[in-house]
Amino acid sequence: MLEVTDLHVNYGPVRAVHGVSFTAEAGSITLVLGANGAGKTTSLRAVAGFHKPASGSVTFDGKTMTGMAAHKVVRRGMVLVPEGRKIFFPLSIEENLRIGGYAAPRGGLDAGIEEVYEKFPILGERRNSQAGLLSGGEQQMLAFGRALMSKPKLMLMDEPSMGLAPTMVEKVLSSVRTMADAGIGILMVEQNADAGLRIADSVVVVNRGETVWTGTASEARGNKAIVHAMLGEAALDDA
Ligand SMILES: Nc1ncnc2c1ncn2[C@@H]1O[C@H](COP(=O)(O)OP(=O)(O)OP(=O)(O)O)[C@@H](O)[C@H]1O
Ligand SMILES: [Mg+2]
Question: Does the structure show a pLDDT above 60 at 234?
């Protein structure tokens, strides 16, 4: 579904990403692991159309979309759930969802909102509340819901569990698994490697701007010492 090959992205003279490759499939969770500054966010943002790659290729559903602008990427069926959630705090939950559905077909907006409320009932119960009053975990669900409004085939998620209490981490990640089981492809950056490995199907390890390892999640679970060595200390709590 998604094939990213030898991606290079620079910030002026800074070579942030220089050789990242990965694939993602429908109905499957690909976990991207890597230390701080490894280039995970930059890679996701370049694939989603927010940075122009210096070189490399991005192919989605057999079509090249390297360097395509973000709004066009969304129309092709790929959407970024950004780091830090980027919820519009002063707006209501429902207004946030409407923004996510800006490209939805005429008449499809209300149906899309109802589908999100079915997946995340807490959002429906509080549809008219200010989004800024939601807990961190609920805000993450709203960020997922807003992304779902564009009817994506693939969601790119940047650290969805960041800053959440452990019980909320489990809830948020289990909702990611549910979205994948419904057929959506997921490419997820996750600092919490153990929690991510529990739900992932395949794994990509990025180190200093390059892909250094890819394999199945069960290989990674069975070989935590290697993953640990590539990520550095404290990456896996029980390795
Ligand atoms: N706007 C920017 N200008 C210059 N350099 C940047 C910019 N954003 C990121 N970088 C650099 O690019 C590299 C990759 O950063 P990136 O944010 O992609 O890493 P990351 O893997 O997402 O890290 P983290 O785990 O901290 O989120 C780092 O060296 C970072 O300092
Ligand atoms: Mg990041």
Answer: no
**Which residue, among 78, 59, 64, has the nearest Cα to 21 in the 3D structure?**
59
> Which bin fits 136, alpha (ψ -120 to 50), beta or left (φ > 0)?
alpha
- For residue 236, the model assigns a pLDDT of 53
Ligand 1 near 99 CB (within 6 A): no
Which of 7, 9, 10, 14 to probe ligand 1 with, by most ligand atoms within 8 A of CB?
14
Assigned architecture for domain 2-84+153-231: 3-Layer(aba) Sandwich (3.40)
pLDDT tens digit sequence for 45-95: 999 999 999 999 999 999 999 999 999 999 999 999 999 999 999 999 999
Q: Give yes or no for residue 53 CB within 6 A of ligand 1.
A: no
